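## Example record

The block below lists the input lines for one assembly entry, exactly as stored, with component labels intact.
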Amino acid sequence: MGKNEVVSTIPHLSIKIPRIPGSIYRKTVAQSKFYYQMYLIRYVERRLFDLYSQGLFSGTIHVCLGQEACAVGVINALDIKKDIIFSNHRAHGHFLAYSDDVYGIVAEILGQETGVCGGIGGSQHLHTKNMYTNDVQGGIVPNAVGAALAEKICGSGAISVVFFGDGTMGQGIVYESFNLASLWRLPVLFVLEDNQYAQSTPKEKAHAGSLKTRADTFGIKSTAVDGNDVIKVYQTTLDAVQFVRNHSKPYFLVLNTYRLGPHSIGDDDRSSEELELHWKGDPIKRLSKKLPVAKKNNIEREIEDKVEAIIKQAIEDSPMVSLDFIQRDS
Ligand SMILES: Cc1ncc(C[n+]2csc(CCOP(=O)(O)OP(=O)(O)O)c2C)c(N)n1
Ligand SMILES: [Mg+2]
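Predicted structure tokens for the full assembly:
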């Protein structure tokens, strides 16, 4: 075993959550695994802010601070061996919950050739296995519908899942996607992470009426859930996924959450009173209260050691992506 390898004493990605409803063991495994993943996302993103401040990468990042329960709850309810996941500009949480590839994403954002996309995609254009992200608001939604059509034609049993934000509900392509998905009975799960803001625009100033009921008119079933309660998100997504897979029909899942961090880097004009209020509902703090203190501390220490070793390695390891490399790749 290498010097920097960490021996895990707690359940995380390799552990499958037993599908026995109501089992106490199942609940304990789920809570530890979810805490591991949510804390990992939080810690990696906080460190990315530091790396940016140190001038170690240019461009920007959009962190999902406060929305970790959405990524973890949904992705754990999927069959990650075959389902196809599409995400947006705020994708780090989805990526880490899906892949656990800390090195791949850190090196990618640093613009290095060893990054998961060779340093060419950066924070907003990630791809690994069955996961794709793109920063064009709404642009990824019809891609998810197309993938669902392909999987249906192949009879693979896979579904496609697409994450988007409340601001993106202002894009017409979302409704064209709802229409075709319903008309052609496609196995696609639409996941709205309603964090109440699009950049600096509050939802109330951009959208009339309810976002959830917009799916009704296309005959698409929907559910809204507290997106900061990871267990609820997980259980609701399990039911939604079962519906999509068994009936080959779309489903609209609304996760009510809140963005605790800036939109990207340093751009936040919300009041400190508003932010303080929402920090009280921090999904990570909420879940931590359900774990024994020693277990929580072990998980945090393991992640911090692991991420620090990976960041050090990623910085030392590889050259910045070169023009030659980009030309060779295209
Ligand atoms: C087509 C398009 N228009 C504008 C932008 C710039 N932009 C990036 S994120 C964003 C707001 C997105 O809001 P929302 O969908 O609620 O997602 P959130 O940022 O809250 O996660 C905007 C306007 C973009 N990326 N793509
Ligand atoms: Mg939003």
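The first strand starts at residue 84 and ends at 87. The pocket of thiamine diphosphate (ligand 1) is lined by residues 89-90, 135-137, 164-168, 195, 197-199, 259, 263 (CB under 6 Å).
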